[in-house]
Amino acid sequence: MTSNEDVLFQTDAFSPSDYIRDRLKGVKIGDETRKLRQLRSEMSALNHASQETLKNNVFRNYQQFIDASKEISHLEREIYQLTHSLIEQKQVIENLLLMTDDDKNSIHTVSSHSTTTSNTNPIQILMQKMEGIGGILNNMSTSEKVILHGEMEQFDVETKKPVQKCMLILLSHRLIIGNINAAGKYVMESTLSLNSVAPVNVKDRESGAANAGKVLKLLIFPESRCYLCESARIRTLWFDELEQAKREILHKGSLVRQATIRGKRQTVKERKAAAAATVIEEKASFVEEDEDVGEEERNDNDISWLAELPAELDDCIAHRDLDQAVELIHEWKQCPTKDAVIDIQLQMRENTIVQLLSDDVSRPGAVHGGPRAMKKARTLLTQLGRGTYATDVYLRRRSAMQRNAMRDVTVSEEPISYVKQLCTLYGNAVSDIANEFRSMPQYYCQVLQWCSYELSTLLNLIRRHVIEVAPAIAVIAYTWKNVMHTMEDLTVIGVHLNFEVNRLLSAPLEKALQGNFENICDAVKMRISEEKWKPYVLDSESALNRLVEELSDVGINVEWAISANDETKSSLNVSQNVVHFARVAHTLSKDLAPLRLSPIQVLCEVYADELWKMYLQHLADNIRDGAVFAYSTTFILTMVLPVCDKILYGEEGELIRLIDQFPSLAPYADPSDEEKQKDDEEVAHV
């Protein structure tokens, strides 16, 4: 398709019938079918190409889409937190403006309409707007207050239309509902206890797209009502305040009951102590009788408290008040009075609480909340005596987080970068865990076991995606250096796992090194078989200078071997294969040096000795007259061998000793033999 046709397809006035008619102009009668099939094939090819392009664009921008989604989610969370903070500040300002000296404890109102800054008592405003609520508002106790009030519209879910205007007033313990009359004033319809009211979420398909997020649904047994708020924010505010008010009622009731029972138990103890103090001088039989009476009364109160405890725990579990539930479990275990039937019921509740806390830690959403999201549930499990279990569940969740993070690391063509990213992820995770459990030494064994397990996962990924895929000695050396650098950082904070690295990487490193050394030996043997002992002639004098600089950068001097012949100014009196071996030997020594600190240290030294013995044997077997051989042998023994020895072992002496096994090469290893060099130069001039 041409660019003109592409533009034609994208115009708003494009007509398929006109386009086909234009394409069929000038077609012979009877060829229309063939032309249409050809056109369909072109359209199919164009459609396929467009789909492939679209797919490639999606794949190419997938990571950007994921990053943008994460950033949007992060910004939405921050916006929600900011909005919530602003709402709270607005409530505080409104409450301060509406507060009077006569009734400071009853003013905490937020209207669904725009609030005024006047100093009028909200109770008076509500009494003016709604008839029949004067008795309720005027008789409120000091602990009661007006939380919210506002005008709404009763909403019919079936027709998705408003029915009538209503006014809702939320107090600390009740909800007042009023309907508007013909005179335009609200009249109290009903007053409901908050224990019989439950707010529920309304799905968008029930409220309609236009009212999505604005409908507040209240379950009032045995029916339900829906109210349309002005905005989604107002609806959320009412929903949250209703839930909070119900939780406060339950919490206060629980505290009152617990305080009453504790007071009875404490009263018994005080009476027992007073009785014991007054009868010190009385007869022992009377003291024993009074103690028995006090013990019986105390047991009765404890049994009464224990009998109510299962119901209290059920309320806490139903409202997810697990902090209070754990506290009640502690008090039950500390109570000296026991009842077998009640103990069985309480043990069942304790198991339920443990399961709920375990689900909070184990659910997939806990991973996205980060380690801090699991801390509360883990702390409560520890308080219940399940510290080891809580730590195990927590570490398993951290393992899931670690696997997800490692799965996001892309296996690129740069294996060293891949290894660095994996090591960084592992090091940060272990440091975080170690710092978190620093003050809990009783869990060190579990932490160390987790670190060892995650280390095995890390090394398996490195082995599968790096060592087995790109087993070059340089890659293996850099991989080992990065892993050991991470282990050194962890050793500083008290996590020593070097032994695990040696155990898990020993076999893969040995196998990779063996395969690389066999390839190097084969290449060197092939070069040896092709050796002609001719000068190394380069293309130009600049190429010779580059070669000299290259060898000089690694500490190998070859300037003394430059040919003095005017006809061959760009040549060396050293064989080309000898220069190649010098490069191979230097690179091998540089790569094997860091691996000498690994579990394959002995293998590295054996392979280095084997390579040098093979080449020295080659030199010893081919001793001959001529400047090229003399210069080449001297170059290997006096320049290349000492440099490789120093790189591999850190000091000269290990590889140099190999010359003693070849006495015929000793004259070439003495750099002070100037006469021999002069003779060789004269031969070179000839």
From TrEMBL:
Known InterPro entries for this protein? Answer: Cullin_repeat-like_dom_sf, Exo84, Exo84_C, Exo84_C_1, Exo84_C_2, PH-like_dom_sf
Keyword check for Membrane: no
**What's an example Gene Ontology biological process for this entry?**
protein transport
Top-level taxon in the UniProt lineage = Eukaryota
Describe the location of the Exocyst component Exo84 C-terminal domain by residue ranges: 305-497
Quote the cellular component terms of the Gene Ontology held in the record: exocyst
Which sequence ranges form a coiled-coil region, renumbered to this chain? 29-56
* Record's keyword terms, sorted: Coiled coil, Exocytosis, Protein transport, Transport
Question: What Pfam families has UniProt attached to this entry?
Answer: Exo84_C, VPS51_Exo84_N
Q: Which family does it belong to?
A: Belongs to the EXO84 family.
Instruction: Please give the name of this protein.
Output: Exocyst component Exo84 C-terminal domain-containing protein
User: Can you name the source organism?
Assistant: Caenorhabditis nigoni
Q: Which gene encodes it?
A: Cni-exoc-8
